[in-house]
Design a protein that fits this description.
Layout (H helix, E strand, L loop, with lengths): L2 H10 L15 H6 L14 H11 L11 E5 L3 H10 L4 H4 L3 E8 L1 H9 L9 H24 L3 E5 L6 H7 L6 E10 L13 H4 L10 H15 L8 H4 L7 H8 L8 H7 L6
Antiparallel strand pairs: 1-2, 2-4, 3-4
Helix pairs in contact: 3-7
The chain binds flavin mononucleotide.
Flavin mononucleotide (FMN) binds next to β3.
Length: 276
């Protein structure tokens, strides 16, 4: 078995095809297969020029209709960083990350183009919000892929949206610009671990969407993951009790039994978006 096959089988179970030769011509696919988030970093700084160059690579990614509705805020100033960390306290690993960036959706520029050309902006509806968010997500993912390709480690941080209003005010984001996720970046201090994924049978569909066998697939994934990577604690044990076999699906169901960012919609409406 090749390295990439080994990693993909670990991640997805036996449900992965043998790796075609085409994917073995470069070491990039194997790196992608083995990627992981990093939350422990060496104290070594990440050069500011390198961060900017990675931003450039991130912004080479595709963008809906070439509208380029995403921006990146690099947090360089120590005071600004400290203020940002104060807004989302209790995340020591984030505080020690050598570099920190915030990926934003920016639909403001598009509206400015309309204004400057004195042409009506006729797309004040939810798709506009969605397009800008997707663009920002694509830039975030591309930044991570570029950074990871040279050995940097990163972890996205949607926790900044727990306090979207405060983050937006601190970073002086105007109407129609909002934070999608931050990114902690640095040289990994630990190897980290590859996190298992649902089987492709559950997540890759052919010709039409199908949920055939989904509950069995999730149960099998729960068992496979609990065996190799058991959760260290059962979430919300006070409320839900302890179960003998605690799996990924228990954890995610329990996670979403607690409201999260229920005020995000009103934050986005206050940013000027019509979400109808
Ligand atoms: C949009 C997005 C937001 C995330 N936000 C956080 C976060 O706030 N805190 C955190 O510790 N990890 C965060 N993560 C990292 C995920 O927890 C991680 O990707 C997931 O557990 C799978 O692990 P892996 O990236 O190592 O495969 C985020 C990931 C994404 C894609």
């Amino acid at each position: 078995m090749t390295k990439i096959e080994e990693v993909l089988k670990f991640r997805f179970g036996d449900d992965v095809p043998d790796t075609p030769d085409a994917l073995q011509q470069s070491d990039f696919p194997a790196k992608l297969a083995a990627r992981r988030s990093h939350r422990h970093f060496k104290p070594d700084p990440v050069d500011a020029d390198l961060v900017r160059a990675l931003c450039a690579l991130a912004l080479c990614s595709a963008s809906k209709s070439d509208l380029q509705q995403r921006d990146i805020v690099i947090i360089e100033d120590a005071d600004q960083r400290a203020k940002l960390m104060e807004i989302i306290p209790g995340n020591t690993w984030m505080e020690t990350a050598p570099a920190f960036l915030v990926f934003c959706a920016n639909n403001r520029r598009q509206r400015q183009l309309s204004e400057w050309h004195d042409i009506p902006f006729a797309n004040d509806h939810i798709d506009t919000f969605f397009n800008a968010s997707v663009d920002a997500g694509i830039a975030l993912a591309t930044f991570m892929t570029a950074a990871e390709s040279i050995g940097l480690g990163c972890c996205p941080v949607s926790a900044i949206r727990n306090e979207a209003e405060k983050v937006s005010a601190l970073l002086e984001m105007p109407a129609h610009v909002f934070p999608v996720a931050a990114l902690a970046l640095g040289w990994p201090a630990q190897e980290g671990h590859i996190s298992m994924r649902l089987p492709l049978a559950a997540t890759v569909h052919t010709d039409r969407f199908s949920e055939a066998g989904i509950s069995d697939q999730v149960r099998a994934y729960d068992r496979r993951r609990a065996e190799a990577q058991p959760f260290s604690r059962q979430r919300g044990a006070n409320r839900f009790g302890e179960v003998e076999e605690y799996g990924w699906s228990d954890d995610k169901a329990r996670q979403y039994a607690v409201p999260e960012r229920a005020d995000f919609g009103s934050f986005i409406r206050n940013k000027g978006f019509d979400l109808s």
